[in-house]
Design brief:
Alpha-Beta Plaits; Arc Repressor Mutant, subunit A; about 35% helix; 2 domains; 3-stranded antiparallel sheet
């Protein structure tokens, strides 16, 4: 039975939608010429139905974006940034980061149940930042301080990545302590130089998909051979290259490790357009492990299925010298804490001492992809009355 667009269910609790989302959130790794067909195969749903349902959920605001993600840690200089902002300026600073700075991605106001010895609890605003090669993250943050009234910032670049994948739907009801048999693999943050053609293709590749683009695939028959070129053909036109060149360049970018996953993104904390929450608690875990054992600890933390992100980052004295961080989500605070307790116990059982640990809870939050294009950065500088050369460092 073929449903009209207006009749397609958009709830995340619909059985077919749940099967699709359990795959589409974070299971389609790398670049594929036909990612919808792979979602369909893994979810056991017809490709045209996958395209139609994703389009419907996107239109309804249940899915907030669909895009090919990048390993931007290899394409731009990046960091997790903690900001100390006066309380009366906190929400205005949040708004500025979200609406005026295309290079700030995840923007979250956090609180902690207990302060750190170094006063880290005073750093309420947390953002991710990506800056194109050749430009200074410090200078960029200094500019943001002048604009927002932030008093201080702390840059915490990732030295290694151990887990990166959201998958809220498939994590619902996950057993406490669920983990992989093998330790996590780490992803180095080595910078990858791109050619003009690479950037040309990448810029079109990473643009968010519209409901109309998904509906075009559904209308053309989804998985039928005649429909498959549709998915990237329009992006090739946008990049002003042939489809063969587009696919070959994208495959080359994938081989060089700079392509992330094809993904549908749900709201992390806020209710969707139907009033449903896929998750409610957003927890940033901090651990301080002995120097020299950061990789070992990261390999263990990253194997836990609840972890959507896990990194080696240095928090310095402000955050009591934590060096392993990670993010987990859940609908109940007690369950999130139980997952963390299982990780703590596992680290200790593995012979890795924990000198200090804490949890920073997310409150108000917004998430958008960080811009990483050098051309876009120059344009942003000019629009803000800044000489781009002055931001180099």
């Amino acid at each position: 039975m073929i449903l009209s667009p207006s009749d397609v269910p958009t709830s995340i609790t619909d059985a077919i939608n749940a099967r699709i989302l359990a795959v589409s959130e974070d299971k389609i790794q790398g670049f594929l010429p036909d990612p919808l067909a792979e979602i369909a195969r893994l979810a056991g749903v017809d490709t045209a139905a996958v395209a139609g349902r994703i389009a419907a959920m996107l239109r309804a605001g249940v899915i907030r974006r669909v895009r090919q993600t990048l390993m931007s840690i290899n394409l731009a200089h990046g960091a997790l940034v903690a900001w100390k902002v006066p309380a009366d300026l906190l929400n205005a600073a949040f708004d500025y980061m979200f609406t005026q700075d295309p290079f700030s991605g995840h923007i979250v106001i956090r609180s902690t149940d207990r302060d750190t010895p170094g006063g880290g609890g005073q750093f309420r605003l947390w953002t991710t930042l990506k800056i194109p090669d050749g430009y200074s993250m410090t200078k960029h943050c200094e500019f943001l301080c002048r604009k927002t009234g932030a008093e201080r910032f702390l840059l915490m670049p990732a030295k290694r990545v151990f887990a990166l994948g959201v998958g809220h739907v498939r994590r619902k009801g996950m057993a406490i302590g669920s983990k992989s048999e093998a330790v996590a693999q780490d992803h180095a943050t080595t910078f990858v130089q791109l050619s003009a053609l690479d950037w040309q293709v990448l810029t079109a590749l990473k643009r968010e998909f519209t409901p109309e683009e998904m509906e075009a695939v559904a209308a053309a028959g989804g998985g039928q051979p005649s429909a498959r070129p549709l998915f990237w053909a329009r992006r090739a036109e946008e990049a002003h290259v042939s489809l063969d060149t587009f696919l070959a360049t994208a495959a080359s970018l994938h081989a060089r490790g700079v392509i992330g996953r094809f993904s549908t993104f749900l709201e992390h904390v806020k209710p969707d357009a139907a009033g449903q929450r896929v998750t409610q608690y957003n927890a940033l875990f901090h651990w301080a492990v002995p120097a020299g054992r950061e990789l070992e600890a990261g390999y263990q933390v990253g194997r836990f299925h609840i972890m959507t992100h896990a990194y080696w980052r240095e928090g310095g004295p402000v955050f009591n010298h934590v060096n392993v961080m990670g993010v987990a989500h859940g609908t109940e605070k007690e369950t999130v804490l139980a997952h963390k307790a299982a990780i703590d116990e596992h680290l200790l059982a593995s012979g890795i001492p924990i000198a200090y640990t804490n949890v920073f809870w997310g409150g108000r939050s917004e998430i958008k992809p960080s811009e990483i294009s050098p051309v876009a950065y120059e344009q942003w500088c000019v629009s803000n009355g800044i000489d781009p050369a002055a931001m180099r460092g």
